[in-house]
Amino acid sequence: MAGFIEQGQWQSFLNDFSKRNQFRPTRLEILGDQGIQEEERFLPLVGVSFEPRGAAAGSVLVTMGGESAQDSRHVEHTIAEVQRIAPIIGQTGFEEGLGFEDREGGKTLLLLERLTEIPENTLV
Questions:
Q1: pLDDT tens digits, one per residue of 52-107
Q2: What CA–CA distance (Å, rounded) separates 99 from 87?
Q3: pTM exceeding the 0.85 threshold for the entire prediction
Q4: Strand 25-32's sheet: what is its strand order?
Q5: How many structural domains does the chain have?
Q6: What's the domain range around 24?
């Protein structure tokens, strides 16, 4: 991952990212010893936040699905001891997600998905 965000900017960067991409469909992938593990797919992004203090200091929380914990589609994923955050920019120059690296070198990818459009001529 290249183009890392400075740690002092994480909170504001993630707030802005969340606002720009709220409700976009996502895919969350964990890259580890067992290869790529897909944790979820096509849930809408609710938000990404950084915890600078307290018991969870240094962690990032990715929230997807419904807007509340009562929604059955609600998923929260915590990335502990984050060391680096990088935006993922596609070939077209548009934002396609975020990459996170934790203290142990584990990587998590939050990818913004594109839903396939239904051609107009198939609608009756």
A1: 999 999 999 999 997 666 777 889 999 999 999 999 999 989 999 999 999 999 99
A2: 6
A3: yes
A4: 75-79, 59-64, 35-51, 25-32, 107-112, 95-102, 82-89
A5: 1
A6: 7-35+46-94+101-113
